[in-house]
Write a structure and sequence with these properties.
The structure holds 2 protein chains of 2 kinds.
Chain A (H helix, E strand, L loop, with lengths): L1 H14 L7 E6 L2 E2 L3 E3 L5 E2 L1 H12 L3 E6 L5 H6 L5 E2 L7 H4 L3 E2 L8 E7 L10 E5 L3 H8 L3 E5 L2 H10 L4 E5 H9 L5 E9 L7 E2 L4 H16 L2 H10 L7
Parallel strand pairs in A: 1-5, 1-6, 9-10, 9-11
Antiparallel strand pairs in A: 2-3, 3-4, 6-13, 7-13, 8-11, 8-12
Chain B lengths: L12 H8 L3 H35 L4 H16 L2 H24 L8 E2 L2 E2 L14 H34 L2 H9 L4 H31 L11 H9 L14 H31 L5 H10 L1
Antiparallel strand pairs in B: 1-2
Helix pairs in contact in B: 2-3, 2-5, 2-8, 3-5, 4-5, 5-7, 6-7, 7-9, 8-9, 9-10
Classes of the chains: A alpha/beta, B mainly alpha.
């Protein structure tokens, strides 16, 4: 009896099988096509889904995707709810103080303003919508425009359509399909602006090992051109490449 | 879902909608309604239990228990719900993981808190990283349930303690005069009579509980509101079923759902009230007695 109890206790306290390989959980927003979005089959889809799966396969890791709100995506990473972020997150100095980044897997990409057709360029200094905690919202706050923040990217577009905001500032790659398919309801306004240092995978600062692993496979995919191929597939032939 | 759904773009309207409304994301949307109902059905008895314990502690003979009860109700009732909903799951999760870490990885080197990071060994992760997605969902749901029970338990404690005081003192005094102990008088005389006084307050709490369920969304659970916003948003051709901004319709459906839920509860409570009033020395009981006479 005593041994039985001891065995159960030992098992319960996790002398259990030491898994050779832990699952790496990757957090994403799932609301930012074509970077990442939840498709109609309720699965995460998009450029980052495909890239992440490929990276994990090359690094021989088992990966699991987790959907998390954009606004809490960094706090939940450092709290350990998942181990990495792939959510169209630009590498910035402010973020680098809290988390660490791999090398970029998406080159610095222009951001652009979009507004209702017929607006003139002055709307850039009017009421501008942007998703909260993004490089774009940071940029609008520095301009003369009044910033209107929304928790999801889709709401920033809806705000322009409903007239709540005069314009929206977001990644051009995100806006492009929306503007194209709006039936000339929406147009790009003003010049593109370069913000951020490309998109990288975010990791806990204490997780050097995982960062080096992913860094290596991202480098490998840059070398053999497969990353460029993937960018072409999701962002069109005109997209910036490495 | 249906065999004709292979190429939605070419479908006539009713078929397109039939396919659209049965897509994977919509099934998840429908499931989230069930999750909300499960939450209220589990959170209500849990809060009632906590509330009862709190109410008993509040009227305890022992000062320590009274202080505990007062501390609990004062703290929870004095802090905004949202703060508590955000605090409890994180605090409980990290405390559990820290304890697991101490037990399972005693020889771990380095601190648990490193700069911004909260790092425990892989064996102490709750749930384990390699656990299936549904395990993570159930864990998150359980933490949310705990937060709901704690918050609503504090309110229920006040309601119940008020109800205990509302039972005429002569009742318990008579019971004790018949030789019952304090405990017997409480169980046999006070408890059966207190519910009629507690019911209006408890029904109020139930309504507030139902209306508070969208807070699940704050805790990272994909609830009704999350799906209404996600599905209603305009969709480009990256999606199988592109459509413009339909959030109005989705939120309308959510509104109807909550209204139906509270309407049904309202009727349920008014029946319960009638049933409990039978034979009670209250205005409601008197009305029933006259109606039958």
């Amino acid at each position: 009896m005593k041994t039985l109890i001891l065995t159960i206790v030992a098992l319960a306290l996790g002398a259990g099988p030491a898994l050779a390989q832990e699952t790496v959980r990757i957090g994403s927003e799932g609301a930012y096509p074509p970077y990442n979005f939840i498709n109609d089959d309720n699965e995460l889809d998009g450029f980052e889904r495909e890239l992440g799966d490929e990276l994990c396969e090359r690094a021989e890791l088992t990966c699991e995707w987790v959907i998390n709100d954009w606004d809490t995506i960094i706090p939940n990473l450092v709290a350990g709810n998942y181990d990495a972020i792939m959510a169209g997150m630009s590498i910035t100095e402010a973020r680098s103080e809290i988390i660490s980044f791999t090398q970029s897997y998406f080159p610095p990409d222009p951001s652009a303003y979009a507004a209702l057709a017929g607006s003139d360029d002055s709307v850039i200094d009017g009421v501008v919508a942007a998703q909260s905690n993004t490089i774009q919202s940071g940029h609008v706050a520095e301009t003369e425009a009044s910033l209107l923040e929304y928790p999801t990217p889709d709401e920033t577009i809806a705000a322009v359509r409903s007239g709540e905001a005069d314009a929206v500032l977001a990644d051009k790659a995100f806006l492009e399909p929306i503007v194209e398919q709006s039936g000339s309801e929406l147009v790009f306004i003003g010049d593109d602006i370069m913000l951020g240092g490309g998109i990288g995978m975010g990791l806990r600062q204490s997780d050097d090992e995982l960062r080096e692993t992913f860094d290596a496979v991202i480098g490998e995919m840059k070398q053999d051109g497969s990353l460029n191929e993937l960018i072409g597939k999701w962002f069109g032939e005109d997209a910036a490449r490495f | 879902m249906f065999p004709f759904c292979t190429d939605p773009a070419a479908l006539p309207q009713w078929q397109w909608f039939a396919c659209y409304l049965t897509s994977g994301t919509h099934l998840a949307f429908y499931w989230s309604f069930v999750v909300v109902i499960i939450l209220v059905v589990l959170a209500a008895p849990a809060s009632l239990l906590l509330g009862f314990a709190g109410a008993v502690a509040l009227r305890s003979r022992y000062a320590v228990l009274r202080w505990l009860g007062q501390g609990y109700t004062a703290m929870v009732r004095g802090v905004p719900d949202v703060v508590f909903f955000l605090f409890v799951p994180i605090a409980v999760d990290q405390t559990l993981e820290y304890l697991m870490h101490q037990v399972r990885c005693p020889h771990w080197e380095g601190p648990v808190r490193r700069g911004n990071d909260f790092v425990v060994c892989a064996q102490a992760k709750l749930p384990s990283s390699s656990a299936a997605a549904w395990v993570h969902d159930v864990y998150a749901f359980a933490l949310a349930l705990l937060a709901f029970a704690l918050v609503f338990g504090a309110f229920a404690a006040h309601t119940l303690s008020g109800a205990m005081r509302a039972v005429p003192k002569a009742q318990t005094e008579t019971a004790e005069a018949f030789g019952m102990t304090r405990g017997q008088a409480f169980r046999r005389v006070l408890m059966p009579q207190m519910w009629i006084y507690a019911l209006p307050g408890l029904s109020n709490l139930w309504m507030i509980l139902i209306k508070a369920t969208p807070l699940l969304f704050l805790l990272g659970i994909q609830d009704i509101v999350y799906w209404a916003r996600e599905l209603g948003g305009s969709k480009t051709a990256f999606y199988t079923y592109p459509h413009p901004d339909w959030r109005l319709w989705y939120f309308l459906a959510v509104l109807v759902f909550y209204l139906a839920l509270t309407w049904v509860s309202e009727r349920g409570f008014s029946r319960l009230m009638d049933r409990m009033s039978v034979g009670q020395d209250t205005a409601g009981g008197e009305r029933l007695r006259r109606a039958r006479a």
